[in-house]
Write a structure and sequence with these properties.
The structure is a single chain. Helix content is 39%, strand content 14%. By secondary structure, it is of the alpha/beta class. The strands form two sheets. An eight-stranded parallel beta sheet has the order 1-10-7-6-5-4-3-2. A two-stranded antiparallel ribbon has the order 8-9. Helix 3 crosses helix 4. The longest helix has 18 residues. The radius of gyration is 18 Å and the shape is globular.
Amino acid sequence: MLVLGCHLSFVNGYEGLGKEALSIGANTFQFFTRSPRGGKARELDLMDVENLNRIIIDNDFKHILAHAPYTLNACSQKEYTREYAEEVMRDDIYRMSFIKGSLYNFHPGSHTGQGVEPAVVMISDMLNRVLSPDQETIVLLETMAGKGTEVGRTFEELQMIIDKVNVKEKLGVCWDTCHIYDAGYDIVNDLDGVIDEFDRIVGLDKLHAIHLNDSKNPFKSHKDRHEKIGLGSIGTDTFEAIINHPKLKHLPFYLETPNDVEGYGEEIKLLKGLRK
């Protein structure tokens, strides 16, 4: 089964997310638990969550993915920013505990001039305080494009974090196709080679999800500007190869393209048509 969804707005609550996903032919979705710019999340409505869980069960949804706010930076030079990151992640993991089989994705952060190694220590230290062996939600490090002082631009940097985390079974990776292509991993001309490299450095057992995004910029540009499927430098053929690849096709896929809900519906229809 192709597990495919997109990023939806949390305007109408949890049940609203499920209904909107159904309306465009999705069987999963991604959402922000709070504003992408940070701040407090809305009060948790357990009845609303239960209504979503019924939609998930009745329609065989898989792996609902929450995305941390972009302002979460566990390796900031500023202590209060790091404290905020930990507070948000603790709260978000608690919220996602009410949705079975959920995932939680975050950008590792920007070291803001401190260097990668100190940043890795800060990120892994936070994860060691936050992750618990008995939590169900898997937390995912997102692959980054390498813009500015981003951490996670290489598979090696991601593995450096994983190596220092104690509860490794609750930590994984989310590929972003725009990010890894912009970072210098040539998924267009050498998808098998990129997969093999990730498996050698991190391990395919750690890959839990993929963001499907075309790129407005050329290979190895380190720009991170998403494009609609088939309209960027990655191209439709590569997405067809990804969703059908024997080592990737079992994963959940999430669109983050510059689209409205109707546009996501068209992309979901397109990708379903490419599934073999």
